[in-house]
Input
Amino acid sequence: MKVIDAHIHFSDIKSFHHTANELSFVDYSYYGHQQEFQKANVVLSIAMGLTETENMGFPDYEARTPMGLDLDDKIPANVVYCAGINPYDLTEGALQRLEDDLKKPNVAGIKIYLGYYPFYAYDEVYEPVYALAAKYGVPVVFHTGDTYSERGLLKYSHPLAIDEVAVKHRNVNFMMAHFGDPWTLTGAEIIYKNPNVYADLSGLIVGTEKELKKRREGIFLDHLRHALVFADSYDKLLFGTDWPLAPVGPYIEFIKELIPEEHHEDVFYKTAIKVFPKIKPFLP
Output
């Protein structure tokens, strides 16, 4: 089965290197990506643009919009990305840079880091970003749910705020990263109600294959299983790993167990093409 990973990272972020070295034990590098993803038959990865300055760390209020990928000097041919937004840098010049990026073939969407920056999805600061998303026919990806930094503010990353944006901007597709976890039941209602909202299943568990197997047992994932059944919207879900937070091969098997087999082709491949139309030329 061919797989598209709709949510990875390919940025030189301190916390990602720490996780790769200490928790997930993956080779977080250009070479590591190519080896690991080829072995898992992942034909394309969609990376989330993100940068940090040396002293600040992420979330970085000084980061330049649009944020891109800087893990290596070059981006792999089988990686496209979503241009990252720092709401503190949305000047006229920043918006022009964002528009210039959206004209590039390998920029497939826009990423907004709710919770890491203290603005709701419906805040006026993001309106010019949504206008550009509509103009260039690309989706907007929101971080939702728990934040990987203790400096994040969870009220801004609750998925309920996306409902207002989705209603106001019916001509833009939106994707909730991480299905709003732990507020997955709210996330389920948002994708069920709104035809232009999707969710990825990335970053639900951080760690090694052993950690993935451990968390599948018991009641830890009951809230997610409930949400998946409640939404009954498997055509609105996309596979993603949040690599390097977990190894890609074991994470594929983890998601396969959560999703009924008849929906695997949609979740692992077809829906990503629908949500990210610019990726078609990059597929084998």
In short: DSSP finds ten helices and eight strands in the chain. The radius of gyration is 17 Å. The first strand starts at residue 3 and ends at 8.
